[in-house]
Structure formats: C-alpha cells, structure tokens
Amino acid sequence: MDRFLSDEVAAVVPLLAAFDTAAREGHITRAADLLGVPQSSLSRRLKALEHTLGVPLFQQVGRGVSLTTAGRELHERTRDLVWALDDAVSAVRSNADPDSGLVRFGFPLTLGPVSIPSLLAEFHRVAPRIRLHLVQAHGEALAGMVRDGRLDLAVMIPPPDDLPVTVLGHQRILLHVARTHPLAGRTQVDLAELDQEHFIASPPSYHLRQSLDSWCADAGFNPHVAFEISEFETIRVLVGHGLGIALLPAAETPHPDLVSIHLPGVSDRTIGLATGNHRPTAAVTRLRDHITHRANEFITR
C-alpha cells in the first residue's frame, strides 16, 4: 500500500533544520548565524513548528534556550534524520560535480598559526571550488562534533579511540619558561625538579592538563597551578611575563620572551586525522587525502 506524508509532516520537514540547529546550539542568535538567516526568520520558523505540533519546544534559560520535554523527545527522534539528509544531499551534489562541495573541517588550537593554514592554502589552490567550513576547538569538543556529524574531518591531539583515525605525526611537549627564569639556561630538566614551581595550565577537562597532572604525579608531586586558561597563546604570554611555567607543544611562531626545554620521560602526543562513521563525499575524501599525503611537510614529527 502506498504511503503518503501527512499534512503535519509535510509542514514540519522544512522546519527541522532550524529546530536541529537551535537545539544543538542552545542559542537563537548563534543558530541563526550558522544557518545564515536573520534571527527573526529563525524565530518564526521555530514558532511555526511549535504551532504545527501544538507544544512548546524551547524555554528561555538566561540568554540562551533549552529544550522542553517535548523538544528533547523530538530532537532525539529527528537529529539523525536531519544529518542523514544533509549527508545525502552533499553526496549527490558531490557525485554530480566532484570538484565542488562543502567540507566541515576542525582542527586544534595548537596548529592554528602555521601548519593547518598552510595545508588548507595549498588545498584551495588545487581545489578552489570546494568550500570549507572551519572550526577550531580543543580535542573533546572536536571529537563530539565529528561523532554527531557536525564535522566531516578533524585533526585532533590525541585522536579518540572510537573514530576512524589516520596518524599524521607526533607533537613533542616541552617545558616553557621565561628567559629570566633560573632554568632558562638548561637544555634538559627532570619533572621532579619542578615540584616548587607555579604552573600555568589549561583547564582540567583538557587532555594536556590531564597529562600534566599524570606526569607530575609520576614524578612524585601535584602541580601547583596558579593560572588556568584554555588559550595556549595566552599561556605563553603569561609565562613570558614570568608568572609561571608551562608544559606545552613548541609554538608555531617564535616567542622571543620564552625558552623551551626538553623534559625526559614526557611522552609525545599523537596527531591524528579523525573521520566520522558516515560515508564521505568526494570533496571530503579529497581533503582527507590531501592532508594525509602532505601533513609531514607541515606538521612537526
């Protein structure tokens, strides 16, 4: 027996992209920016969806919004459908014209100034019609976006165990001190020598902070973290002002106020290119292959 869409479903389907984006972002303005529409247009779409279903889907929380019980149920039942449709449309367009398409690509904060921009600039020269939507964030945030389909590819340090990954190289972690620090003249320092130092570090949710805590515990002490901040470049500036020391990867651009020192026993971190579990489009495959083949020219091993 033939099946036909009900009037309600026919009305709801065009509004699901707006609903899904607002549900994920928890903020109407950010969702409107992502969709490239005025905030008023997005609000009208959400109100139209609520009117069609006869239930409120969002509630105001501070400056953002959160899902109601009905909204959560709808999102749980439809979110995979929205991204499956997005993948289907992208695949069909890409197959029709493999030299064009959209790739949603993420990369970590530590590879922003030089490595990744160099790779992307070269890719744009050979594939100028492929559009790139770029996201820069820390590892767990990138992993979450790859898992739920918001990103097609992401360079992560270290990559997660539950996604397909190609190893691109390794990142060495070094001790960073100000040039005026008593250790600045050393070429090598044992971690145990740092038990009385003040550290500047990323928040506890970051992998590098978790590694710092683990390495220091192995050396017999808990690090005294005087400042916590997520931005690595700001950490370097604070270290340069003599406010503490930090364990960080080497900077991609020179910092004249810093000295980096080798730390025996501190392991390198793996740099990996993670992909989602859905079938990639031709454009995604092309960027993935480009990064895989050219990474060792840009990413320090």
Could you please describe the fold and organization of this structure?
The protein has 301 residues and is α/β, with parallel strands linked by helices. 41% of the residues lie in helices and 21% in strands. β1 and β2 form a beta hairpin. α3 packs across α4. The radius of gyration is 23 Å and the shape is globular. The termini are far apart.
Essential attributes:
single chain; 301 residues; alpha/beta; D-Maltodextrin-Binding Protein, domain 2; 10 helices; DNA-binding transcription factor activity; LysR_HTH_N
Secondary-structure blueprint:
Blueprint: H1 7-12, H2 16-25, H3 28-35, H4 39-53, E1 58-61, E2 64-67, H5 69-96, E3 101-107, H6 115-126, E4 130-136, H7 139-147, E5 153-156, E6 165-171, E7 173-178, E8 198-201, H8 207-218, E9 224-228, H9 232-240, E10 246-249, E11 258-261, E12 269-275, H10 282-294
Parallel strand pairs: 3-4, 3-5, 8-9
Antiparallel strand pairs: 1-2, 5-12, 6-12, 7-10, 7-11
Helix pairs in contact: 2-3, 2-5, 3-4
